[in-house]
Structure formats: structure tokens, C-alpha cells
């Protein structure tokens, strides 16, 4: 039954170009997109992101409309709700960002992934692309719905955000950018730690606990505080007036909205680089 | 074709695979045997690049696995039955894997059919039994219609029908000219499936030969001799390819000669023999004797096997110790 004479040229599947079967980066992105949307956890976390954003904005708008009697300067005050909404919605995107990669390690899927993409890094980048694009699109939708809700509730009183204002647009786009970047931060941490619980503990602990501790009025902490990922990144969602107010009392650096966001992106880049180096080296 | 050169893998101070070199040829089923912890899985993982070798190289069809343009076209690997996301359905898993290489959905349905997973393809993998997971693993391995298949313990957890199915499948794939590299710790299964056998023990390659050779080596070449003139007889028989082990004064086993040759040599020198018994072995015995020093996790019951008894002299008291009594487990050939 065994035949030694069959040469490999006569064997099956020799010419991989004949039928176009070949590994390419766009195909790895397609694969990661299929993986991303065929898990219930993805659907749930994205749905929660939208519900939390829109829910908080709706509640805020109702109360804001009742309390304000038009004394506010033309809708400028209501825009701060996006910082609050994003600080809640980030919990959902952090979970999603972490699970995208740690879920593969906890289930063993990573071995299938890295067998299909043995150079490894394309799989990491493809996951990052799919995650970033998906979260940016979904949070943009959430922001758009929120703006619509504000228009309905506060529009008549002239308290809704003014879309003709440059700063308002920066804050609205910045909210989607912040959620995207913070999800990538969790993703990079997940790629580094390869463990769901450890990653969530690290990222949420940093964002919710450690960054708050750095607000303690002790000079060394206050010098570092502006450069922590959540604190720095949130500047992109803050009105300039608020940042100016804070900088009057600030001990450390006062980062502009885009500088702050740049610092968050730098954190993401450093973690992703470390994760990439380790992914190449470590046994799967 | 899989070629390994001086492949070595260390985890900390443990050496899992120790300077192993081999070639797995196309067109036949190569069985990879060894006790648990011998380094079989580590070796297979190094072939597809999941583990980085500490030293040495391994290539598939002439290149390191990662350097192929279509890796799934070169190698289909089933390395463990738990390499799936438990929250995804079998179909979606295969679809995502296929997408990396631009393999169409028709092929996904094809491998689902081939592995008999039609009824559960839309169910989430988390609820799969070990046998179903193994079938999904085989389906994943076949996805790229690969020239080389690497299957680590594929029959583990399969029902008897599944075991026969895997056996026929790998024999068919090899007959098509593909390279099939199959690991198992079940000797009996290998005897039925493999053409060629490699035995690994404690990370070292103990044997690499056709099944027939390994069986031949195990049967009829070892002869048990008892004689009051043991020392003189041993001197007489000494030569290349002949090894002698003694377990009690006046009693020894000679490997590499035959009962006829020893008997005639003894008669020519007028030496008295009290016993002259060819010890027949099975593939299982060959395997046991090859790996007896390299079993990492041994249960106490393995001491029931005469070869593993510390008091080998005791069994020498039985003058007719031969194949049937020598092998308390497995088949005898």
C-alpha cells in the first residue's frame, strides 16, 4: 500500500499558486474579522458599549435640561458628558480588547492561529486592526446616537452641542478615538500577559485605582500623573476651558488634548512592541 | 518530507528533546512512539514552529514551516484536541482558518463531511466531546489539502469506529503520496497503521526503522542461556553485533545470535548447556525494551512485566520462559 516512488512533484497540493491558495495579510485580517464577529462576547461587549454611552448621555441630558435655565454658554457645558460616558463605556471595550487575544490563550485557539500564520506578527497586527476599526465604528455610532438624543432633549433650549464648533467636533471624535485607543491598550496588555484575569486586573486596576491614587497631592505622584494612559488620553475628550482650569493648579505638565492622546498612543505602541517581540520569541 | 537536524529543546533545566535527527518520508505512514513525556509533542510542535528549538533545525518540504507561502498547504497539523475557541462553532472555526489562505467555503463543507461533523458543525465547540474535538482537529488539518500531515495522538478519545476511520484515512493519505507523521503511545495501534516507526524516549531517538525491522529485531534474536561454563561460552561467542547481559551467575541473555549458532558453538567446544531458549518478542516487547529506561511516569503495575522485574533471576527459575510467558500484555508475534 505504501509507495516510496511517488515524488513530491506528483504529490497533492504542490503548486500553491495554481488555485491562489496562499497566506496574505489581507486574508489574515479577513480571518480575524470572521473570528471577531463569530463570538458572542464581541456582540455583547459592543452592545454594552453603545447602551452605556447612550444611556448615560440620555440621563445626563434630562437632568441637565431641568437644572439649566439657559445661563450656560450655548451648549458648551453639556459636552462634558462625553468624558463621563466614555469613562463608563471604556470598561466594556477594555474587556473586549483583552478577550480578543487572551481568549485565544485560555481556550488553546492561539495554537490554531499561529499554525495557520506561523510568522505570528501578521496575526497580532490583523487582530489589532480588526479591533481598532470595529471599536472606532461602534463608538462613533454610539456618539452619533448620543448627539441625536441630546438634540432631541436639549435642542429646544439651545443646550445641545454645536456641531459647527471645532472643539465640540474634536471632543466627539476624540471620544471614539479614546475608546479605540484604550481598547488597543488592553489588547496590547493581553498580548503581553496572555491571561484574561491578569490582563483585566492590570488594565482596570490601572485605569480605575492606580490613576486615581496618583491624584493624591504628593509632588512625585503629581508629576507622573498627567502621563498615565487613562489620564493623558482623556484630555482628548475634555473642553479646553476645563483643561485650562486644571492647569492653574497643576504641579506637573499640562498636556493639550492631542498631546495627551499622543501619550496614550505611545503607551499602546510601547506595549504592542513588547508584545510583538515576546510573541516572536515565546513558545505558543 | 520532514527533516530534523540535531533538534534540541530545553525548558529551563529539563531537556525535552535532545539532539534528535530524522527524516520522515512521503508515501508512507511514520509512527512516532514513546512514553508520556518522551518529547513527541514537543518535537511535533517544533516542526510547525509553535515551539522554538533551543538548537538544531527542522524543515518541511525543504523549508522551515514559517517560510512557506501557503503553510496550511504544506502541513496539516492536529497537535491537540483543544486548539479551538470554545465559544465558536466548528463551521466558523474552520471558516476562519480557511480564510487566512483564501481557501473557499466549499472546502470547509468538504472537510466537515469527510470528518462526519455535519450534524454538529453549527454548534459551539465548547460542548464537544473529546472524540468530536479530535474529528474537528482532523478537519482543520485537512483544510489546506496538505502534502504533509502531522497528527499528535489522533485516536485519543475516539470510539472504535473512529479509530478504524483514522487508520484508514492516514493509510489512504499516505497512499496518495503524502507524508504522514503520526504519534501515539499505543503500540498495538501503530502496528496496524504505520509503515515506519520512530521511538523516542526521554527526548532521545531510540529507534528509527521500518515496522518489520523492529519486529524482527525483537523476535528470535535474543537467546536465553544457562550453563555451568558460562564464562567460557561467552568468550567463545563474543564478536561484533553480539551483546551479552547476565542477570545471575551462570545465566545470561545473548542478543545478536541464534539458538542454533550458540548450540553448535557449545557442542563444538564440548560445553554443557542447561538451557537454550529463544526469546520471541512482539512489537510491543520491542517498544517496552527500548523505552524501559526512559519512562518518566511509571506506575507500579508495570513491574508485572517480567522485563521490568528487579529480580530477574527469579524468572530464570522457570526453564521454559519464552514468548507466551515473557509477554504478559499485548500481542505476541
Can you describe what's shown?
The complex is a heterodimer of chains A (284) and B (333). Chain A has helices spanning 25-37, 40-67, 81-107, 109-116, 121-154, 166-193, 196-213, 219-224, 229-234, 240-249, 257-281. Chain A has one domain (24-281). Mean pLDDT of chain A is 89; it is low at 1-16. In chain A, 71% of the residues lie in helices and 0% in strands. Chain A is globular. By secondary structure, chain A is mainly alpha-helical. Chain B is of the alpha/beta class and 333 residues long. In chain B, 34% of the residues lie in helices and 24% in strands. Chain B is built from 13 helices and 13 strands. Chain B has helices at residues 40-47, 71-74, 90-99, 105-114, 130-142, 160-175, 187-193, 211-218, 230-237, 259-268, 283-291, 312-316, 323-326, and strands at residues 2-11, 14-24, 29-33, 55-60, 75-78, 148-152, 179-184, 196-201, 204-210, 222-226, 243-248, 251-255, 275-279. In chain B, the strands form 3 sheets. Chain B has a 6-stranded mixed sheet, sandwiched between helices. The radius of gyration of chain B is 24 Å and the shape is elongated. Residues 301-333 of chain B have low confidence and may be disordered. The chains are: A mainly alpha (284), B alpha/beta (333). At the A-B interface, α1, α3 and α4 of A face α2, α3 and α6 of B.
Shape of chain B: elongated
Q: Which CATH architecture of the largest domain in chain B is right?
A: 3-Layer(aba) Sandwich
Beta-strand residue fraction of chain A: under 5%
Q: What is the CATH first-level class name of the largest domain in chain B?
A: Alpha Beta
Largest interface: A-B, 47 and 55 residues
Number of domains of chain B: 2
If you compute it from the alpha carbons, what radius of gyration of chain A comes out, rounded to the nearest whole angstrom? 23 Å
The number of helical runs of chain B is: 13
Number of strands of chain B: 13
Amino acid at each position: 500500500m505504501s509507495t516510496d516512488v511517488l515524488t513530491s512533484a506528483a504529490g497533492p497540493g504542490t503548486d500553491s499558486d495554481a488555485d491562489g491558495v496562499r497566506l496574505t495579510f489581507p486574508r489574515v485580517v479577513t480571518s480575524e474579522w470572521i473570528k471577531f464577529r463569530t463570538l458572542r462576547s464581541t456582540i455583547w461587549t459592543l452592545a454594552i458599549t453603545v447602551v452605556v454611552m447612550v444611556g448615560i448621555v440620555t440621563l445626563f441630558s434630562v437632568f441637565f435640561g431641568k437644572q439649566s435655565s439657559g445661563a450656560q454658554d450655548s451648549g458648551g457645558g453639556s459636552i462634558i458628558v462625553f468624558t463621563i460616558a466614555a469613562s463608563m463605556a471604556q470598561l466594556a471595550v477594555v474587556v473586549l480588547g483583552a478577550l480578543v487575544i487572551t481568549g485565544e490563550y485560555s481556550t488553546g485557539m492561539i495554537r490554531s492561529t499561529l499554525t495557520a500564520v506561523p510568522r505570528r506578527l501578521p496575526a497580532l497586527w490583523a487582530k489589532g486592526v480588526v479591533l481598532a476599526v470595529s471599536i472606532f465604528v461602534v463608538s462613533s455610532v454610539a456618539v452619533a446616537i448620543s448627539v441625536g438624543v441630546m438634540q432631541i432633549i436639549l435642542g429646544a433650549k439651545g443646550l445641545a452641542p454645536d456641531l459647527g464648533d471645532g472643539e465640540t467636533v474634536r471632543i466627539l471624535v476624540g471620544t471614539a478615538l479614546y475608546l479605540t485607543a484604550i481598547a488597543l491598550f488592553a489588547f496590547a496588555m493581553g498580548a503581553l500577559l496572555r491571561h484574561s484575569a491578569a490582563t483585566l486586573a492590570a488594565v482596570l486596576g490601572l485605569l480605575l485605582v492606580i490613576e486615581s491614587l496618583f491624584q493624591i497631592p504628593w509632588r512625585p505622584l503629581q508629576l507622573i500623573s498627567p502621563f498615565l494612559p487613562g489620564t493623558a488620553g482623556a484630555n482628548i475628550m475634555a473642553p479646553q476651558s476645563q483643561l485650562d482650569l486644571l492647569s492653574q493648579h497643576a504641579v506637573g505638565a499640562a498636556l493639550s488634548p492631542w498631546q495627551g492622546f499622543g501619550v496614550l498612543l505611545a503607551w499602546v505602541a510601547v506595549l504592542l512592541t513588547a508584545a510583538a517581540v515576546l510573541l516572536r520569541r515565546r513558545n505558543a | 518530507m520532514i527533516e530534523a537536524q540535531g533538534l534540541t529543546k530545553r525548558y529551563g533545566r529539563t531537556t525535552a528533546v535532545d539532539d534528535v535527527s530524522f527524516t520522515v518520508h512521503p508515501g508512507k505512514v511514520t509512527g512516532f512512539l514513546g512514553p508520556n513525556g518522551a518529547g513527541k509533542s514537543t518535537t511535533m510542535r517544533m516542526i510547525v514552529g509553535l515551539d522554538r528549538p533551543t538548537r538544531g533545525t527542522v524543515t518541511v518540504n525543504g523549508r522551515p514551516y514559517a517560510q512557506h507561502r501557503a503553510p496550511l498547504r504544506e502541513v496539516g497539523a492536529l497537535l491537540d484536541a483543544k486548539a479551538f475557541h470554545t465559544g465558536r462553532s466548528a463551521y466558523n472555526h474552520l471558516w476562519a482558518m480557511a480564510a487566512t489562505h483564501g481557501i473557499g467555503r466549499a472546502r470547509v463543507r468538504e472537510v466537515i463531511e469527510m470528518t462526519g461533523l455535519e450534524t454538529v458543525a453549527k454548534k459551539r465547540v465548547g460542548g464537544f466531546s473529546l472524540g468530536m474535538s479530535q474529528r474537528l482537529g482532523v478537519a482543520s488539518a485537512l483544510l489546506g489539502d496538505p502534502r504533509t500531515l502531522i497528527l499528535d495522538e489522533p485516536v485519543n478519545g475516539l470510539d472504535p469506529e473512529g479509530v478504524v476511520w483514522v487508520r484508514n484515512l492516514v493509510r489512504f493519505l499516505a497512499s496518495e503520496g503524502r507524508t504522514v507523521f503520526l504519534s501515539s503511545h499505543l503500540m498495538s495501534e501503530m502496528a496496524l497503521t504505520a509503515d515506519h516507526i520512530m521511538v523516542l524516549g526521554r527526548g532521545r531517538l531510540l529507534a528509527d526503522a521500518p515496522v518489520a525491522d523492529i519486529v524482527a529485531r525483537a523476535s528470535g534474536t535474543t537467546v536465553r542461556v544457562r550453563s555451568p561454563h558460562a564464562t567460557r561460552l561467552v568468550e567463545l561467542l563474543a564478536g561484533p553485533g553480539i551483546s551479552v547481559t547476565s542477570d545471575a551467575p551462570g545465566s545470561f541473555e545473548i542478543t545478536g545470535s541464534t539458538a542454533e549458532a550458540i548450540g553448535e558453538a557449545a557442542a563444538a567446544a564440548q560445553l554443557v548447556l542447561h538451557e537454550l531458549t529463544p526469546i520471541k518478542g512482539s512489537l510491543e516487547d520491542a517498544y517496552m525494551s527500548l523505552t524501559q529506561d526512559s519512562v518518566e511516569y511509571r506506575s507500579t503495575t508495570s513491574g508485572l512485566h517480567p522485563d521490568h522485574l528487579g529480580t530477574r533471576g527469579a524468572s530464570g527459575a522457570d526453564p521454559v520462559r519464552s514468548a507466551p510467558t515473557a509477554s504478559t500484555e499485548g500481542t505476541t508475534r
